[in-house]
Amino acid sequence: MLNKIVPNFSLPATGGKNFELDAMRGTMLLLYFYPKDSTPGCTTEAGQFRDLHEEFVRQNCAVYGISRDSLKSHESFKAKLALPFELLADEEEIASTVFSVIKMKNMYGKQVRGIERSTFLIDGNGVLRREWRGVKADGHAAEVLDAVKSLNAGTLP
Questions:
Q1: Chain-wide mean pLDDT for the chain?
Q2: Which of 11, 30, 31, 42 is catalytic?
Q3: Is residue 146 part of a domain?
Q4: CA distance linking residue 47 with residue 139, whole number of Å
């Protein structure tokens, strides 16, 4: 899907909003998928995107976190971490299917289906410009911000 237009999808968002991909045209968009609200890695990742959020905004890049958790869970997680961006509830795995992020994972010795921590950078024309799969939470937000700056400068490979 890299360098192709991402198909439209719609998901419920925190703050009583609804997210529709096509409505975001004209703005660079960062979608980061994470396994579960309030878990250690997901808390680290969300906190780092929060701490760099103003820089993403200066780069004309909207940030959204996505997991299969409910809106109620998302609202609690967002409030606990004072996240300045919305979280999208993908309970029916709509966006997870579009981006193929559902994988079999080992959890305490058992095989379970879950979201592979992944991030996608979409340009203002709706084209997927960069993807990161199976990422480590710590330090990832800064790496993504560098890619956003490169895309804005026209130097993204």
A1: 95
A2: 42
A3: yes
A4: 11
pTM beyond cutoff 0.90: yes
Q: Judge whether 124 lies within some domain.
A: yes
CA angle, 24 then 15 then 70, to 5°: 95
Q: Provide the β-strand partners of residue 67.
A: 89
61 catalytically annotated = no
Residue 148 belongs to what domain range? 27-153
d(CA 102, CA 117): 9
CB 98 within 8 A of CB 66: no
What gap in Å lies between CA 134 and CA 143, rounded to an integer? 14
- What are the tens digits of pLDDT across the range 97-114? 999 999 988 877 888 889
Rounded average pLDDT over 17-25: 96
